[in-house]
Amino acid sequence: MRVALVTVSLFALLGTGLPGQATDAPPATKQQLHRIADAFGMLRTTDEEDMIATLRFWGTGTLMVDGRPCRLASYAASVNYHVPGARIEYACAEAGGKPGPRRVEVVAGSFAWNEEAPGGTATPASASAAERLLDLWTLPHAAVKAAVLAGARTSVSTEGGATVLTFPIPSADATMKVTLNSKPIAVAAGSQDLKKVALPAGTVIERVETRRGSVVTETTYAEFGDFNGADYFSDVVFPRRITQKRGGVTTLDLTVEKTNTYNPYVVMPVPRNVRAASTTALNR
Fold first, then answer.
1. I need a surface site. Which of 201, 209, 224, 225 has the fewest CB within 10 A?
2. How many alpha carbons lie under 13 Å from residue 283 in its C-beta half-sphere?
């Protein structure tokens, strides 16, 4: 396994919506974050830089939509940590199992909008920006990046035998609590090299709790592995099971079927009408 401290040069050119750069964390905290990034396969090149810039994943399961459970006919998520931004495309299954209308929800920094189709006509959704951005930072690789960026504001403690990281997410006006695995975890899939090792205790994110105002969201991750496909393994680890609860109500229960962790092309330029609507709201 690799031993150099994690670098964050990937973030040098990142834009609006970052968790917020802080002073450097203590060496012990840096080492802990390095172990997590290393276990997740985020560190590449001889300088061990964090090279996870974009990500796509597809899944099936259920999602709470407009206060009602939706059985997913399709679900695809595209993430760009440089923006940072995400585009979530999904359709609910209707009677007879046929897909209903496609929904496309986007966030890019402090802007949020919905699209008729990916990259198509946009409808501003400014009120959803902070929540969508927080969901982005809750993803395992993103949580590592956020903890690194929080620097000295990231604290490390132990609860019930598990290592816990706590840090702020200023861009979403929230705090995040990350609980790591207390026992070694065998990966569910991956290349032969990845199959040979069990990820050590204290290196895998199993639960993320966020607090934004009075809203508490708990996201749990399980069944980790490389799900790019047998001819496309990258040794980048991702969870197969993602479950999210908000206020005690399950809002997402997703089984990941496939990932693309080779930095796929993912963009979400902010439409002019969305930018204009946000400016108008700020000037009121």
1. 201
2. 6
Are the CB atoms for 204 and 39 separated by under 8 Å?
yes
- Render each residue's pLDDT in the chain as its tens digit; 284 residues: 333 333 444 333 333 345 655 578 889 999 999 999 999 999 998 899 999 999 999 999 999 999 999 999 999 999 999 899 999 999 999 988 789 999 999 999 999 999 999 889 999 999 999 999 999 999 999 999 999 999 999 999 999 999 999 999 998 999 999 999 999 998 876 666 666 678 999 999 999 999 999 999 999 999 999 999 888 889 899 999 999 999 889 999 999 999 999 999 999 999 999 999 876 555 55
Q: Which residues pair with 249 in a beta bridge?
A: 246
Instruction: Please tell me the CATH code under which domain 9-276 is placed.
Output: 2.50.20
Residue type, 40: F
Residue 22 to residue 148: CA distance in whole angstroms:
9
Angle, in degrees to the nearest 10, between helices 27-39 and 140-150: 160
Instruction: Return phi, psi of residue 186, to 5°.
Output: -85, 135
3-state secondary structure of 191: coil
User: CA 180 to CA 208: how far, in whole Å?
Assistant: 9
Vertex 151 angle, CA 145 and 153, to 5°: 115
